Amino acid sequence: MNAPNKSGWKPEMQPDDGMQEGPATTTGNRALMLEEPLLFEIGHEETTGIDLSAIEEGAPTRLGGLERAEAIGLVGLTEPETVRHYTRLSRQNYGIDLGFFPLGSCTMKHNPRLNEKLARLPGFADIHPLAPQNSVQGALEVIHQLGDWLCKLTGMPAVAMSPKAGAHGELCGILAIRAAHEARGRAREVVLVPESAHGTNPATAAFAGYRVEDIPANSEGRVDTAKLKERLAQTSPEDCDVAAVMITNPNTCGLFERDFREIADAVHEAGGYVYCDGANFNAIVGRVRPGDLGVDAMHINLHKTFSTPHGGGGPGSGPVVLSESLAPFAPLPFVERQQDGTYRIVEEEHRDAEHQSFGRMTAFHGQMGMFTRALAYMLSHGADGLKQVAEDAVLNANYILRSMEDVLYAPFAESGPCMHEVLFGDRDFGGDLSTLDLAKGLIDEGYHPMTVYFPLVVHGAMLVEPTETESKATIDQFITAFRSLVERAVAGDERLKQAPYYAPRRRLDETAAARKPRLAWQPPLA
Amino acid sequence: MNAPNKSGWKPEMQPDDGMQEGPATTTGNRALMLEEPLLFEIGHEETTGIDLSAIEEGAPTRLGGLERAEAIGLVGLTEPETVRHYTRLSRQNYGIDLGFFPLGSCTMKHNPRLNEKLARLPGFADIHPLAPQNSVQGALEVIHQLGDWLCKLTGMPAVAMSPKAGAHGELCGILAIRAAHEARGRAREVVLVPESAHGTNPATAAFAGYRVEDIPANSEGRVDTAKLKERLAQTSPEDCDVAAVMITNPNTCGLFERDFREIADAVHEAGGYVYCDGANFNAIVGRVRPGDLGVDAMHINLHKTFSTPHGGGGPGSGPVVLSESLAPFAPLPFVERQQDGTYRIVEEEHRDAEHQSFGRMTAFHGQMGMFTRALAYMLSHGADGLKQVAEDAVLNANYILRSMEDVLYAPFAESGPCMHEVLFGDRDFGGDLSTLDLAKGLIDEGYHPMTVYFPLVVHGAMLVEPTETESKATIDQFITAFRSLVERAVAGDERLKQAPYYAPRRRLDETAAARKPRLAWQPPLA
Amino acid sequence: MRYLPLTDTDRGDMLERIGADSIDDLFVDVPEIARLDGPIHDLPMHASEMAVERQMKALAAKNLSADGTPFFLGAGAYRHHIPASVDTVIQRGEFLTAYTPYQPEIAQGTLQMLFEFQTQVARLYGCAVANASLYDGSTACWEAVAMSTRITKRKRAVLSGALHPHYAQVVKTMAHFTGYEIADSAPAIQPEPDLNGLTARIDENTACVVVQYPDILGRISDLSTLAEAAHDKGALLVVVNTEPVALGAIRAPGDMGADIVVGEGQSIGVGLQFGGPYLGLFAVRDPKHVRQMPGRLCGETEDAEGKRGFVLTLSTREQHIRREKATSNICTNSGLCALAFSVHMTLLGEKGLRRLAAENHRLAYMAADRLAQVPGIRLLNESFFNEFTVMLEGRPAREAVRALAKRGVLGGVSLGRLYPGVEALEQALLVAVTETTTPEDIEALASELETFVKEPAR
Amino acid sequence: MRYLPLTDTDRGDMLERIGADSIDDLFVDVPEIARLDGPIHDLPMHASEMAVERQMKALAAKNLSADGTPFFLGAGAYRHHIPASVDTVIQRGEFLTAYTPYQPEIAQGTLQMLFEFQTQVARLYGCAVANASLYDGSTACWEAVAMSTRITKRKRAVLSGALHPHYAQVVKTMAHFTGYEIADSAPAIQPEPDLNGLTARIDENTACVVVQYPDILGRISDLSTLAEAAHDKGALLVVVNTEPVALGAIRAPGDMGADIVVGEGQSIGVGLQFGGPYLGLFAVRDPKHVRQMPGRLCGETEDAEGKRGFVLTLSTREQHIRREKATSNICTNSGLCALAFSVHMTLLGEKGLRRLAAENHRLAYMAADRLAQVPGIRLLNESFFNEFTVMLEGRPAREAVRALAKRGVLGGVSLGRLYPGVEALEQALLVAVTETTTPEDIEALASELETFVKEPAR
Ligand SMILES: Cc1ncc(COP(=O)(O)O)c(C=O)c1O
Ligand SMILES: Cc1ncc(COP(=O)(O)O)c(C=O)c1O
């Protein structure tokens, strides 16, 4: 039933090739596509799904005379209503569990269910971050073991585990770099970031008090090494204002930065540090160690490469591996294995010469819930499996590249293989059709669209990352559908401008949303 | 968004009031409505989602020389493919979690998630039925406690816990009756069953070796007490051939059998036993004790009244409460509380005068997984909550009855209130429209249809059971949609004959399926 | 009440629409004598989730769970590792909270799954058609006997002595009431089952002969000759399997000539659960017998647009259509367990099932060898899959089981418990070994049994 | 490999289409120096689900979980009962395995949920607008300080001494690099916080004053005057809350004049999890500040057919649009924790939250009274919600915590751990009590502490 329709769409096809149209329904529902009101439209102040005893009138309190008298304005639902409300909402969502989700740069791979189960063991889920350390040795061991895996996989000597996501990890790395510079007397002023970088890179550098400058790219989609060297050579190393470069590798065009080592050497020579955005580590895990390329700091998105679920936007976890020179500046707290084989948490009181930590980034020890999942993922795959992960991810991406390049503009197709993701552009689309229209067409076909309009270096960018957890059959069917849509886009099929037709909602008016923001529910005027 | 459309459908409405039609998709998918191939079309013999070591060539075996040489013909999927396959399939299903499911006689109430969690505790889920009894005292206590609740709720002195579903419970009750008759010297020949009874009633009686005879009904939808008494009076009690009557109460027309006690007395006088089908216990739980009405045996569907999930067809659990006179014949094994407060399992070796058990119905002790859920349900509701369950279930059904009777034929509306379900018929439908068409129309509206064409006593029966776990808002919206569909059916709107329009499949050809059964997948001919 | 959405205002409004003064008005048909004046005494009032969880956890804590315990129980219920994704799937509300797929347009998920399940079971059993499940292996066994009597129009069933005694009990219980004649016996303690003796008992009145494979003592034998002998006399061969994993290593019953193959499917996906819910499997080798099968069947068809779809079919066999003439009274079956089985089997696939079977056998072989070395213990079996019988010389196995449990080892099932009063079986212990068993577990069992056997009998 | 669907045949076919001889051809861009010749040494090979489960369970077993343990830890992370249905919802694949809702047509589930979540948080905090979550309370606290500096164009923040020390550390760490000036101190051990002293520190260069409510010692005070004082000086009041359940009993910060309210949402729906993932809540009282907020915002709009729908909006604040000019660098947030919070809050509702808060306070009151009776223990607080400070006379609280843990009682958080080296705080113990605490737990704590305090100091 699901086999690729070999013929696909043809320009001569008529609109009435479509789905059978039915009469309008009273409820607005369409069989299993169900409408759902807002919580505040169905809940009641007096309804609750929790059986707690009524509040004892006149019971003594010690609330400092600050009792909350007025209504909070919350509403409740009983359990049946709650489960149904959220189940119905969930059915308006797409997820990896439903189908192919080739969102470039996001590594939407399968989330193993073992990991969900293990993270919920009371021994992990029901322990307090400030519990006496003798009562949480297993938790500390998890953090330590996971850190050890990360060091070995990256070939780096140290790791900071507390950052809460990729961007937080970037901040951790840049702060460590800044602290190292400060320890040497001067923080410097500039961080160099390529235009193709993820938005968090420049935002982080700015957040940490740096000025951001562009690194020029070459026509192959990579850093222009010569120009970068020129920039560094503007001053002597002692006067150099460049604190660090931030380079994504593999980069957001899906290409490996061939000259990474050469660039790193140049930066080091100028007294700077090399930050590597490791969001794309999935392409090389188990096959390449960033430590061998001269990296000083690199965050790893456990929610990408190590498959902790994205959860509709988070949570994530962004441990940062650090070079010898940055390790002393790692943030607090961290876990240390002691001589006797027990573990301890190093906190503020232990700051000393060896621990010149730049400080604390978050209240506790990081994303424990993600650590257990990521460790289970690593133990499951092992060194052999992780290598296979990288290889299959890269294989799938190249397969899509070579299956599409005859019909779709692939700017870097000539320059060699891509890594785990492949970048296309909308150069050849007809009429006034653009990447957005194609993306919405994919929705009707039952796919989540690829990342669109990122990176900024290609017009109408489409960044396709299949990941390694997809079967060839799935990718083949996707290619058929994708090709058919591209043909329509190139032929200027105007109907694509109305897509999606079958999703819970047609295109949404984002301009109106921003012009007059409605960010919380308000009762309708009577 | 989901508020009832007050106007509803009007006969003058045009077909093009319908949903926006889109172009055909290459994949056959429609955004979140996803097609899914058969397992055997996507799986491979060489693929597995379980990492076990390869079989050691030439390892010694003691398989009696019966190694399975040829291919079994199974196919495997990796975990990502498996999770997606079943997630996509699941999305083609309707369940209580999605919406209103008023399937009469089936009690589709909310399934509390606490119960799911508790049933999975290793202390319940990971224990063996033949484990030494000193190692499973908690499990035996659950069975005993649950039995105690059932006895108290029904006002009966004994309970058999091992039956695996309602029909198995019926069998248990009828076998106990037969054993009791045999113990008195003669099994008798006939079991009386009303025409409105569920199919399992006559099937069970026949399965137990009895001849089934109809009990006549009166115009009010209840047993015709006079005629029944006549039947019993055909012979003297000693010569009476009637072993038992099987009466459902509340009955499948949704009515309480007012004369139940009187009937029971008459049956007892004739030396017969009274079997009560307790599938509809939800209507009276906590408010009426069947023991007060002269019942000798009654099964209780834990998967209805006590909310263990239906799971797409099962499993269920059908404990049977027994009167003093039938208790000695209860099946083995059962759990007994001993003097010292410990529990033991009574099995074949303990058969004696006190335990004249008719034998064993199933390999082990019954549906433990359902017992833990049902006990949690009872503890959660308590005596007060269970009473409220019955009251709300009855209230909801009467509310629907009185909100529909002006537009829809309700044969027993005059004779007083209904219990937990309400029966309608298609007498007034126009054109050649029937109950089936209305049911399929409800599918498009986002509802699961009611039970249709059962009981057999009304033409085009529609049996609507809302249950107590529905909110008034949900029921109000249902009433609006239901009324609108009824209006269309009465007006003879032919488009209903094509419904459903929006479900994953249009009407399926059941005749073709039965004429040339295809009951297992066969590889397509090359 | 967290599960009851109606508010008091709702109740008032609804009573008003109904035209009733109070809820009692809706219960007028209940006779005076049966009206209760308030909540039933003697039962507690409603409780919070937290309170109920505490109470139930306390009960669970009174059981010694197999998790982390050296565990060797089998005899019709086996402990296997169930992949986490199985539970994820069966907890999908769309599967968990659906009813029997009577409205196929919105039940294709359940229906397609059942079609796949039926195909998996049929292939595993070497049969043409399997149904959509029955309650458990024991009731499936009775249904097979009943079906045989319908097909052959004979009333006698011959049961192998090595059929699970609880299965035999179920058959005999039912047969007593239906007037069928059942020939059976306790198993003879010998390395190979006595199939000749069984064959000799088949006569012209025999509807079927029922044999377990592997049998209750764990023995495996070729059933082809038995099948021929049965067929010669116009009888059917019913084969019972209680460990589906075995069929990843040994020949399928259907391939050896079994007419009806039934079994317990609990091993795959379902878990121990103290005996239920389990999963009755039922299949026939010859499609011509389909219309005599009990239980639901899912079949392929097309919808009005010509798309493939699935429906429940051949319902004229079933109680809701045929009432007293139905092939069985079963209605609710083991749907969700069938789903769990099917998901687990899909994860396994041909390759995984074969590896799983090999691993079970490898470890059982290791355990059998190890126990055979213990002085005072004798291994009975010539052949076995993942379960075998050992004889504890001079000591009743029931005592061994109890004594070991006190020491945290769940050492097996004693035949003394299964066949109370049969002296010849008192010293026999059934030991099951699966992929969840570790070499350390085997060592623990061996040394505990050694200690036990050495102890003087009390 | 159970997670990798490609077969070797697939790989071969795909390489062929690509035109590569081997997978190595696809890694040609990796410099020689960084190529590995095989799997990384020193790391184990792949393992079965069963093996991994065993390993991880052994690690979990080394921790003393709160379940079944008398448990009194708080200080920014609280243990509450989470209804089972919360986990059911967040395990729905459609929520769990979705990405940030960048394609709103197929992400209305996440988006509507976020809109509801934002509304719940705003109301709880007495604010106009809340965002779609940040990492946790401590980073939210820093974001509030940073936002205050953007709004006021000033660079000085005054932190209350009774702000959670880890939150203060986070602010100071960041401020060091951004060049902001932070004024703070350790908390003074007194029954009521010194709001006057705090007020005195606000000057014309102050961007904001940051105060915790209830504060780190559990004390509660009216912040209205402080708000006025801050506003008089053109500064903003930032209120930090680490226990949202408290706001079911005490006044909302927004209602007392807080400009930005931030906090930790972990108490509702998320659980302890050894500190993460948690849930940063962030809200502003005045909608005019919306465009300076960090993090994602979900807003209402319409689709092309005029149906209501939701989208992420005002993204021009965010890094993916504004890059170095963004209001924050945050991208991935705490989406699934927000869902858990929202589901739990929906189950609670107004009534449930108020009851939950009352029950927490009732039990905390009982515990405070009980501990105050123990000789050698002094209750510090005049006011508190579900957490209070006791002074152990003559004994360091850190030792008490360790000693009690060895006896299976998790007795609280010592201020000595939170403020290492601050002598005045060494004897202070923070004790948190929630609805999960039983009277028996309280008794156990009292008697263990009594024993401890009596023991002579080592
Ligand atoms: C290349 C790149 N860098 C950084 C990030 C930021 O990671 P996070 O979203 O975990 O903060 C992302 C994630 O979207 C990314 O794709
Ligand atoms: C009235 C009635 N009796 C008996 C049964 C049979 O119960 P079960 O399906 O559990 O065997 C049912 C269930 O459908 C029923 O509705």
CATH level-4 homologous superfamily of the largest domain in chain C: Type I PLP-dependent aspartate aminotransferase-like (Major domain)
- Strand percent estimate of chain C: 5-15%
Catalogue the unreliable spans of chain C. none
The oligomeric state of the chains shown is: heterotetramer
Residue share in helices of chain C? 25-40%
Architecture overview:
In chain A, 31% of the residues lie in helices and 9% in strands. The longest helix of chain A is centred in the C-terminal third of the chain and has 37 residues, at 368-404. Mean pLDDT of chain A is 93; it is low at 1-9. Chain A has 526 residues and is of the alpha/beta class. Chain A is globular. In chain A, helix 9 links the parallel strand 4 (242-248) and strand 5 (273-277). In chain A, 66% of the residues are buried. The two termini of chain A are 51 Å apart. Chain A has helices at residues 39-42, 79-90, 113-119, 122-125, 137-154, 166-183, 200-207, 225-232, 260-269, 368-404, 435-444, 472-490, 510-515; strands at 158-160, 190-194, 211-215, 242-248, 273-277, 297-299, 320-322, 334-337, 343-346, 422-424, 451-452, 462-464. Chain C is of the alpha/beta class. Chain C has 2 domains: 66-81 and 350-454, Aspartate Aminotransferase, domain 1 (Alpha-Beta Complex); 84-344, 3-Layer(aba) Sandwich (Aspartate Aminotransferase, domain 2). In chain C, the strands form 3 sheets. A 7-stranded mixed β-sheet of chain C has the order 1-7-6-5-4-2-3. A 4-stranded antiparallel β-sheet of chain C has the order 10-11-13-12. In chain C, helix 3 (84-90) packs antiparallel against helix 11 (335-372), helix 5 packs parallel to helix 11 (335-372) and helix 11 packs across helix 14. Chains A and B meet through helix 2 and helix 12 of A and helix 2 and helix 12 of B. The complex binds pyridoxal-5'-phosphate (2 copies).
